[in-house]
Design a protein that fits this description.
alpha+beta, four-stranded antiparallel beta sheet, 2 domains, 4 strands, Double Stranded RNA Binding Domain, 180 residues, 6 helices
C-alpha cells in the first residue's frame, strides 16, 4: 500500500472515530450463517448452517489522485486499496478475513451483513453510489468447512498441481476417505 492509500485509510479511520462518518457507527452482533445468502425480511442476509456470514457489501471507489479502495459500511475500519479495481476486490476479501479475526480476537461479535437494499438507505452509501462508486459483494475466502486461509492455500496448491479445482480435489479426497 502506498503513502496515498495509507493517508486515505488514516482519514477514514479518523472520521469513523470522530463520529463524523456513519461507517463507524455499526454495532457488532454475531451472525449465524454462511453458505447461500437468501434475503430475509428486515434486510439482513439469511444465514446458513456453518455459523459464518456469507458476504458483506463493500463500496468500491477510485480516488482520482491515488488508488482504488473498498470500504465496508457494516464493518467500521475494514478497508482495502490497490492499483486496480480487480486487485482491490481481492485485497478487500483478505482485509475482511483479517478484520474478522481481529474482532474475534478482541472477544467481540461480527456485525450482521445488510442487503444492498437496506444499505442504500444509509446516507454514506447513498452518497457514494450517487457519486458513481460501485457496490460490490465481498465474500471471505473461506470454504464451507471453516478452514483458515493457510489451509485454503495448501488445498488450492495441491489442486493446481493435479489440474483440479478446489471443489474437485476436496470432493475426490472425501470420496476416497469414505470409500475406505
Amino acid at each position: 500500500m502506498d503513502d496515498a492509500a495509507v493517508q486515505g485509510t488514516a482519514r477514514h479511520l479518523r472520521a469513523s472515530r470522530a463520529g463524523g462518518d456513519r461507517r463507524g457507527a455499526a454495532r457488532p452482533r454475531r451472525p449465524s450463517g454462511r453458505d447461500r445468502a437468501k434475503h430475509r425480511p428486515g434486510g439482513r442476509l439469511d444465514e446458513g448452517e456453518a455459523g459464518i456470514v456469507t458476504a458483506y457489501v463493500g463500496i468500491l471507489e477510485k480516488d482520482p489522485t491515488s488508488l482504488w479502495g473498498v470500504w465496508f459500511p457494516d464493518l467500521p475500519g475494514c478497508i482495502a486499496a490497490a492499483e486496480t479495481a480487480d486487485a482491490t476486490v481481492i485485497q478487500a476479501a483478505e482485509a475482511l478475513v483479517q478484520w474478522m479475526a481481529l474482532i474475534e480476537e478482541d472477544g467481540r461479535t461480527l456485525p450482521p451483513a445488510r442487503t444492498i437494499e437496506v444499505l442504500r438507505q444509509d446516507v454514506d452509501v447513498s452518497q457514494a453510489l450517487a457519486a458513481g462508486h460501485a457496490a460490490v459483494v465481498i465474500r471471505p475466502p473461506f470454504d464451507e468447512l471453516g478452514l483458515d486461509e493457510t489451509a485454503i492455500r495448501a488445498i488450492d496448491s495441491a489442486a493446481e498441481r493435479r489440474g483440479l479445482s478446489r471443489r474437485d480435489l476436496v470432493r475426490e479426497m472425501v470420496l476416497n476417505q469414505i470409500a475406505v
